[in-house]
Amino acid sequence: MIFDPILDIFRGKAVTIPPMDGALKPNTALDDAAVLLEAEAPDNLCSNGEYLFYSTGNQAIGIKAGADAKTGEVASFDSAVTALAALPGGPLAIGLDDGRLVLLSDDGDQRELTPPAGLKCPTALAFDGKDALYVCQGSARHKPSDWVVDLMEKGASGSLWRYDLASGKPDCLAQGLAFPYGVLALKGEHGVVVSEAWRHRLVGFAGHGAATPVPILSKIAGYPARLSAAADGGAWLALFAPRNRLIEFTLLENAYRADMMREMPRDYWIAPALSPQMSFLEPLQSGGVKTMGVHKPWSPSRSYGLAVKLDDKLRPQASYHSRANGRRHGVTAIAEFAGRALVAAKGGGAILDIGAAPGMGS
Protein backbone atom coordinates (compact mmCIF):
# COMPACT_ATOMS: atom_id res chain seq x y z
CA MET A 1 0.00 0.00 0.00
CA ILE A 2 1.13 3.54 -0.74
CA PHE A 3 0.69 4.63 2.89
CA ASP A 4 2.71 1.76 4.40
CA PRO A 5 5.97 3.73 4.81
CA ILE A 6 4.09 6.45 6.70
CA LEU A 7 2.13 4.02 8.88
CA ASP A 8 5.28 2.05 9.68
CA ILE A 9 6.51 5.00 11.76
CA PHE A 10 3.65 4.38 14.20
CA ARG A 11 2.93 0.64 13.97
CA GLY A 12 6.39 -0.74 13.19
CA LYS A 13 7.48 -2.35 9.96
CA ALA A 14 4.81 -4.62 8.53
CA VAL A 15 6.07 -8.08 7.50
CA THR A 16 3.84 -9.40 4.73
CA ILE A 17 4.36 -12.34 2.39
CA PRO A 18 2.47 -12.75 -0.91
CA PRO A 19 0.18 -15.79 -0.70
CA MET A 20 0.56 -18.83 -2.91
CA ASP A 21 -2.78 -18.69 -4.65
CA GLY A 22 -4.26 -18.66 -8.12
CA ALA A 23 -1.69 -20.07 -10.55
CA LEU A 24 0.60 -20.73 -7.55
CA LYS A 25 -1.91 -22.80 -5.60
CA PRO A 26 0.03 -25.57 -3.76
CA ASN A 27 -0.02 -29.14 -5.07
CA THR A 28 2.22 -32.21 -4.98
CA ALA A 29 3.18 -32.30 -8.66
CA LEU A 30 6.96 -32.42 -8.10
CA ASP A 31 6.78 -35.25 -5.57
CA ASP A 32 4.42 -37.14 -7.89
CA ALA A 33 6.58 -36.57 -10.99
CA ALA A 34 8.63 -39.28 -12.66
CA VAL A 35 12.35 -39.22 -11.86
CA LEU A 36 14.54 -38.91 -14.95
CA LEU A 37 17.64 -39.50 -12.85
CA GLU A 38 18.96 -39.05 -9.35
CA ALA A 39 22.18 -37.10 -8.78
CA GLU A 40 23.93 -35.17 -6.06
CA ALA A 41 22.70 -31.56 -6.15
CA PRO A 42 21.77 -31.45 -9.88
CA ASP A 43 21.72 -27.90 -11.23
CA ASN A 44 21.86 -25.74 -14.39
CA LEU A 45 19.63 -27.58 -16.87
CA CYS A 46 19.99 -26.51 -20.49
CA SER A 47 19.81 -28.11 -23.92
CA ASN A 48 21.25 -27.68 -27.41
CA GLY A 49 18.53 -29.86 -28.91
CA GLU A 50 20.68 -32.99 -29.15
CA TYR A 51 21.85 -33.13 -25.53
CA LEU A 52 20.49 -32.14 -22.15
CA PHE A 53 23.22 -30.72 -19.94
CA TYR A 54 23.29 -30.37 -16.18
CA SER A 55 25.90 -29.86 -13.50
CA THR A 56 26.66 -31.73 -10.31
CA GLY A 57 29.51 -30.47 -8.17
CA ASN A 58 32.50 -29.73 -10.41
CA GLN A 59 31.18 -31.76 -13.37
CA ALA A 60 29.11 -30.90 -16.42
CA ILE A 61 27.08 -33.93 -17.59
CA GLY A 62 25.37 -34.56 -20.92
CA ILE A 63 22.36 -36.78 -21.69
CA LYS A 64 21.75 -37.69 -25.33
CA ALA A 65 18.23 -37.55 -26.70
CA GLY A 66 16.66 -40.83 -27.76
CA ALA A 67 15.56 -44.13 -26.32
CA ASP A 68 19.04 -45.03 -25.06
CA ALA A 69 19.39 -41.70 -23.13
CA LYS A 70 23.10 -42.25 -22.54
CA THR A 71 24.69 -40.09 -19.84
CA GLY A 72 28.33 -39.04 -19.77
CA GLU A 73 30.70 -36.45 -18.35
CA VAL A 74 31.26 -33.49 -20.67
CA ALA A 75 33.87 -31.69 -18.58
CA SER A 76 35.18 -31.46 -15.03
CA PHE A 77 36.97 -28.66 -13.24
CA ASP A 78 38.74 -27.92 -9.98
CA SER A 79 35.86 -25.64 -8.95
CA ALA A 80 32.10 -26.18 -8.79
CA VAL A 81 30.05 -25.48 -11.91
CA THR A 82 27.64 -22.65 -11.13
CA ALA A 83 26.13 -21.79 -14.53
CA LEU A 84 25.56 -23.40 -17.93
CA ALA A 85 24.16 -22.27 -21.28
CA ALA A 86 23.80 -24.17 -24.55
CA LEU A 87 22.88 -23.27 -28.10
CA PRO A 88 22.20 -25.49 -31.14
CA GLY A 89 25.38 -25.57 -33.18
CA GLY A 90 27.28 -23.54 -30.61
CA PRO A 91 29.62 -24.12 -27.68
CA LEU A 92 28.62 -24.95 -24.12
CA ALA A 93 29.16 -21.94 -21.85
CA ILE A 94 30.22 -22.77 -18.29
CA GLY A 95 30.53 -20.55 -15.22
CA LEU A 96 32.57 -21.67 -12.21
CA ASP A 97 32.51 -20.91 -8.50
CA ASP A 98 35.98 -19.37 -8.71
CA GLY A 99 34.67 -16.77 -11.19
CA ARG A 100 35.97 -18.28 -14.43
CA LEU A 101 33.94 -18.44 -17.66
CA VAL A 102 34.70 -21.22 -20.15
CA LEU A 103 33.42 -21.99 -23.67
CA LEU A 104 33.56 -25.69 -24.54
CA SER A 105 33.36 -26.71 -28.20
CA ASP A 106 31.94 -29.98 -29.54
CA ASP A 107 35.43 -31.43 -29.90
CA GLY A 108 36.35 -30.61 -26.29
CA ASP A 109 38.45 -27.51 -26.88
CA GLN A 110 38.18 -25.01 -24.04
CA ARG A 111 38.36 -21.25 -24.44
CA GLU A 112 38.42 -19.13 -21.30
CA LEU A 113 36.78 -15.71 -21.42
CA THR A 114 38.69 -12.96 -19.66
CA PRO A 115 36.40 -11.46 -17.03
CA PRO A 116 36.66 -7.77 -16.14
CA ALA A 117 37.98 -6.81 -12.72
CA GLY A 118 35.45 -7.68 -10.05
CA LEU A 119 33.49 -10.28 -12.05
CA LYS A 120 33.71 -13.22 -9.63
CA CYS A 121 30.22 -14.68 -9.19
CA PRO A 122 28.65 -16.18 -12.35
CA THR A 123 25.16 -17.38 -11.44
CA ALA A 124 23.43 -17.63 -14.82
CA LEU A 125 24.30 -17.56 -18.53
CA ALA A 126 22.27 -17.17 -21.73
CA PHE A 127 23.32 -16.91 -25.36
CA ASP A 128 22.18 -13.93 -27.44
CA GLY A 129 22.30 -15.75 -30.75
CA LYS A 130 25.72 -17.14 -31.69
CA ASP A 131 27.56 -13.87 -31.27
CA ALA A 132 27.10 -12.90 -27.63
CA LEU A 133 26.68 -14.29 -24.14
CA TYR A 134 24.79 -12.74 -21.23
CA VAL A 135 26.34 -13.28 -17.81
CA CYS A 136 24.67 -12.65 -14.46
CA GLN A 137 27.02 -11.81 -11.62
CA GLY A 138 25.15 -12.50 -8.40
CA SER A 139 27.43 -10.52 -6.12
CA ALA A 140 30.58 -8.43 -6.36
CA ARG A 141 31.62 -9.59 -2.87
CA HIS A 142 30.83 -13.30 -2.66
CA LYS A 143 31.14 -16.51 -4.66
CA PRO A 144 27.96 -18.22 -5.93
CA SER A 145 28.31 -20.88 -3.21
CA ASP A 146 28.13 -18.11 -0.59
CA TRP A 147 24.72 -16.89 -1.74
CA VAL A 148 23.19 -17.13 1.74
CA VAL A 149 25.86 -14.77 3.09
CA ASP A 150 25.01 -12.23 0.39
CA LEU A 151 21.32 -12.46 1.30
CA MET A 152 21.94 -12.07 5.02
CA GLU A 153 24.11 -9.03 4.28
CA LYS A 154 21.24 -7.67 2.16
CA GLY A 155 23.56 -7.51 -0.81
CA ALA A 156 22.70 -5.57 -3.96
CA SER A 157 26.05 -5.59 -5.79
CA GLY A 158 25.05 -7.90 -8.66
CA SER A 159 25.34 -6.99 -12.32
CA LEU A 160 24.42 -8.05 -15.86
CA TRP A 161 27.08 -8.35 -18.58
CA ARG A 162 27.09 -9.04 -22.31
CA TYR A 163 30.16 -10.66 -23.88
CA ASP A 164 30.90 -10.23 -27.57
CA LEU A 165 32.19 -13.73 -28.32
CA ALA A 166 34.27 -12.70 -31.35
CA SER A 167 36.31 -10.08 -29.50
CA GLY A 168 35.84 -11.38 -25.96
CA LYS A 169 34.92 -7.83 -24.92
CA PRO A 170 32.45 -7.57 -22.00
CA ASP A 171 29.97 -4.72 -21.58
CA CYS A 172 28.19 -4.01 -18.30
CA LEU A 173 24.46 -3.54 -18.91
CA ALA A 174 23.29 -3.06 -15.32
CA GLN A 175 24.64 -2.78 -11.79
CA GLY A 176 23.17 -2.67 -8.30
CA LEU A 177 21.09 -5.83 -8.80
CA ALA A 178 20.10 -7.89 -5.76
CA PHE A 179 21.58 -11.27 -6.72
CA PRO A 180 20.52 -11.82 -10.34
CA TYR A 181 20.06 -15.60 -10.58
CA GLY A 182 18.54 -16.14 -14.00
CA VAL A 183 18.68 -14.53 -17.44
CA LEU A 184 16.69 -15.04 -20.63
CA ALA A 185 17.04 -13.24 -23.97
CA LEU A 186 13.61 -12.72 -25.54
CA LYS A 187 12.41 -11.14 -28.75
CA GLY A 188 9.86 -8.40 -28.21
CA GLU A 189 9.04 -5.80 -25.59
CA HIS A 190 10.81 -7.41 -22.62
CA GLY A 191 14.26 -7.74 -24.21
CA VAL A 192 16.60 -9.37 -21.71
CA VAL A 193 14.81 -10.67 -18.61
CA VAL A 194 16.61 -11.19 -15.29
CA SER A 195 15.37 -12.80 -12.09
CA GLU A 196 16.43 -10.67 -9.13
CA ALA A 197 16.36 -13.11 -6.22
CA TRP A 198 16.66 -10.85 -3.17
CA ARG A 199 14.01 -8.44 -4.52
CA HIS A 200 11.69 -11.33 -5.47
CA ARG A 201 11.01 -10.10 -8.98
CA LEU A 202 11.67 -10.33 -12.71
CA VAL A 203 13.02 -7.26 -14.48
CA GLY A 204 13.58 -6.48 -18.14
CA PHE A 205 16.26 -4.57 -20.06
CA ALA A 206 15.56 -3.30 -23.58
CA GLY A 207 18.42 -3.24 -26.07
CA HIS A 208 22.12 -3.94 -25.57
CA GLY A 209 23.20 -0.72 -23.87
CA ALA A 210 23.27 0.00 -20.15
CA ALA A 211 19.71 0.42 -18.95
CA THR A 212 17.48 0.82 -15.93
CA PRO A 213 15.63 -2.37 -15.01
CA VAL A 214 11.90 -2.34 -15.71
CA PRO A 215 9.84 -4.52 -13.31
CA ILE A 216 7.89 -7.24 -15.10
CA LEU A 217 6.72 -9.55 -12.31
CA SER A 218 7.00 -8.35 -8.71
CA LYS A 219 6.18 -9.62 -5.21
CA ILE A 220 6.93 -13.24 -6.02
CA ALA A 221 6.20 -15.64 -3.15
CA GLY A 222 9.68 -17.17 -3.24
CA TYR A 223 13.26 -16.56 -4.31
CA PRO A 224 13.46 -16.76 -8.12
CA ALA A 225 16.35 -18.62 -9.74
CA ARG A 226 16.88 -19.47 -13.40
CA LEU A 227 14.71 -18.74 -16.41
CA SER A 228 14.35 -20.72 -19.63
CA ALA A 229 12.32 -20.40 -22.80
CA ALA A 230 9.21 -22.50 -23.44
CA ALA A 231 8.16 -23.82 -26.84
CA ASP A 232 4.75 -22.14 -26.63
CA GLY A 233 6.31 -18.66 -26.44
CA GLY A 234 6.25 -18.42 -22.65
CA ALA A 235 8.97 -19.22 -20.15
CA TRP A 236 9.82 -21.35 -17.12
CA LEU A 237 10.84 -19.90 -13.76
CA ALA A 238 12.52 -21.87 -10.98
CA LEU A 239 12.08 -20.76 -7.37
CA PHE A 240 14.72 -22.24 -5.08
CA ALA A 241 13.21 -21.40 -1.66
CA PRO A 242 10.05 -19.91 -0.13
CA ARG A 243 9.68 -16.58 1.59
CA ASN A 244 8.43 -16.66 5.17
CA ARG A 245 7.77 -14.12 7.89
CA LEU A 246 10.54 -15.19 10.25
CA ILE A 247 13.22 -14.79 7.59
CA GLU A 248 11.75 -11.47 6.44
CA PHE A 249 11.68 -10.27 10.05
CA THR A 250 15.29 -11.38 10.60
CA LEU A 251 16.35 -9.34 7.57
CA LEU A 252 14.94 -6.25 9.30
CA GLU A 253 16.90 -6.83 12.51
CA ASN A 254 20.45 -5.79 11.65
CA ALA A 255 22.08 -6.28 15.05
CA TYR A 256 20.49 -9.69 15.64
CA ARG A 257 21.39 -10.85 12.14
CA ALA A 258 25.02 -9.77 12.55
CA ASP A 259 25.26 -11.70 15.85
CA MET A 260 23.64 -14.77 14.26
CA MET A 261 26.08 -14.78 11.35
CA ARG A 262 29.06 -14.36 13.64
CA GLU A 263 28.14 -16.91 16.31
CA MET A 264 26.07 -19.65 14.64
CA PRO A 265 26.96 -22.32 12.03
CA ARG A 266 25.63 -21.34 8.61
CA ASP A 267 23.32 -24.37 8.36
CA TYR A 268 21.29 -23.08 11.30
CA TRP A 269 20.91 -19.44 10.31
CA ILE A 270 17.37 -18.16 9.98
CA ALA A 271 17.69 -18.10 6.20
CA PRO A 272 16.35 -19.90 3.11
CA ALA A 273 17.68 -23.40 2.45
CA LEU A 274 17.74 -25.77 -0.51
CA SER A 275 16.62 -28.75 1.57
CA PRO A 276 15.31 -29.39 5.10
CA GLN A 277 18.00 -30.26 7.63
CA MET A 278 15.67 -32.32 9.85
CA SER A 279 17.73 -31.35 12.89
CA PHE A 280 16.51 -30.26 16.31
CA LEU A 281 18.89 -27.30 15.91
CA GLU A 282 17.12 -26.08 12.78
CA PRO A 283 15.08 -22.84 12.97
CA LEU A 284 11.30 -23.32 12.77
CA GLN A 285 11.67 -26.85 14.12
CA SER A 286 8.40 -26.74 16.11
CA GLY A 287 6.27 -26.40 12.99
CA GLY A 288 8.76 -27.11 10.25
CA VAL A 289 10.07 -30.52 11.27
CA LYS A 290 7.26 -32.43 12.98
CA THR A 291 4.27 -31.68 15.19
CA MET A 292 2.61 -34.61 16.98
CA GLY A 293 4.72 -36.93 14.84
CA VAL A 294 3.43 -35.50 11.54
CA HIS A 295 5.14 -33.06 9.19
CA LYS A 296 2.34 -30.81 7.95
CA PRO A 297 2.48 -29.81 4.27
CA TRP A 298 1.49 -26.24 5.18
CA SER A 299 3.99 -25.88 8.03
CA PRO A 300 6.59 -23.07 8.00
CA SER A 301 9.64 -24.13 6.07
CA ARG A 302 12.97 -22.71 4.96
CA SER A 303 12.95 -24.95 1.89
CA TYR A 304 10.36 -25.76 -0.77
CA GLY A 305 10.09 -27.00 -4.35
CA LEU A 306 8.44 -24.74 -6.92
CA ALA A 307 8.53 -24.58 -10.72
CA VAL A 308 6.36 -21.97 -12.45
CA LYS A 309 5.17 -21.85 -16.06
CA LEU A 310 4.87 -18.28 -17.36
CA ASP A 311 2.83 -17.20 -20.38
CA ASP A 312 4.12 -15.03 -23.23
CA LYS A 313 3.53 -11.94 -21.06
CA LEU A 314 5.60 -13.55 -18.28
CA ARG A 315 2.59 -13.95 -16.01
CA PRO A 316 2.22 -17.12 -13.88
CA GLN A 317 0.14 -19.68 -15.73
CA ALA A 318 0.68 -22.93 -13.80
CA SER A 319 2.90 -24.24 -11.01
CA TYR A 320 4.41 -27.50 -9.75
CA HIS A 321 5.13 -27.87 -6.02
CA SER A 322 6.93 -29.96 -3.44
CA ARG A 323 5.50 -28.70 -0.16
CA ALA A 324 7.05 -28.44 3.29
CA ASN A 325 6.71 -32.20 3.85
CA GLY A 326 7.93 -33.08 0.34
CA ARG A 327 11.32 -34.33 -0.86
CA ARG A 328 11.98 -32.42 -4.09
CA HIS A 329 13.04 -29.04 -2.75
CA GLY A 330 15.50 -26.44 -3.99
CA VAL A 331 14.40 -26.08 -7.63
CA THR A 332 17.12 -24.09 -9.40
CA ALA A 333 16.58 -24.79 -13.12
CA ILE A 334 14.01 -26.00 -15.65
CA ALA A 335 14.49 -26.94 -19.31
CA GLU A 336 12.46 -28.40 -22.15
CA PHE A 337 14.11 -31.37 -23.83
CA ALA A 338 12.80 -33.96 -26.29
CA GLY A 339 9.26 -32.69 -25.81
CA ARG A 340 9.35 -32.92 -22.01
CA ALA A 341 9.60 -30.32 -19.26
CA LEU A 342 12.41 -31.27 -16.84
CA VAL A 343 13.07 -29.80 -13.40
CA ALA A 344 16.34 -29.82 -11.42
CA ALA A 345 15.56 -30.20 -7.70
CA LYS A 346 19.01 -29.38 -6.37
CA GLY A 347 17.97 -29.87 -2.76
CA GLY A 348 15.99 -32.99 -3.65
CA GLY A 349 18.79 -34.77 -5.50
CA ALA A 350 16.86 -35.46 -8.71
CA ILE A 351 15.96 -34.29 -12.20
CA LEU A 352 12.19 -34.66 -12.57
CA ASP A 353 9.99 -35.13 -15.64
CA ILE A 354 6.80 -33.12 -15.10
CA GLY A 355 5.24 -34.06 -18.43
CA ALA A 356 4.89 -32.93 -22.01
CA ALA A 357 6.12 -29.39 -22.54
CA PRO A 358 3.33 -26.99 -23.56
CA GLY A 359 3.35 -26.43 -27.29
CA MET A 360 5.46 -29.54 -28.00
CA GLY A 361 2.80 -32.26 -27.96
CA SER A 362 2.78 -35.44 -25.85
Structure description:
It is a single chain. With 362 residues, the protein is mostly beta strands. It contains 6 helices and 24 strands. The longest helix has 10 residues. The mean pLDDT is 89.
Task: Note the topology.
Blueprint: H1 4-11, H2 29-32, E1 34-38, E2 43-47, E3 51-56, E4 59-64, E5 71-76, E6 81-85, E7 92-96, E8 101-104, E9 110-113, E10 122-128, E11 132-137, H3 147-152, E12 158-164, E13 169-177, E14 180-185, E15 192-196, E16 201-205, E17 214-217, E18 222-229, E19 235-242, H4 245-252, H5 254-263, H6 285-288, E20 305-310, E21 316-322, E22 331-337, E23 340-345, E24 350-356
Antiparallel strand pairs: 1-24, 2-3, 3-4, 4-5, 6-7, 7-8, 8-9, 10-11, 11-12, 12-13, 14-15, 15-16, 16-17, 18-19, 19-20, 20-21, 22-23, 23-24
Tell me the span between the first and last alpha carbons.
Answer: 44 Å
Shape: globular
Query: Average pLDDT across residues?
Result: 89
- Uncertain parts: none
* Topology, number of strands: 24
Write the element-wise H/E pattern from the N-terminal end onward: HHEEEEEEEEEEEHEEEEEEEEHHHEEEEE
Q: In DSSP terms, counting alpha (H) and pi (I) runs of 4 or more, how many helices? A: 6
Strand content: 35-45%
Q: Using the CA coordinates, give the radius of gyration.
A: 20 Å
Backbone structural class: mainly beta
How would you write the strand order of the largest sheet? 1-24-23-22
Can you summarize the main beta sheet? 4 strands, antiparallel
Helix content: 10-25%
Oligomer: single chain
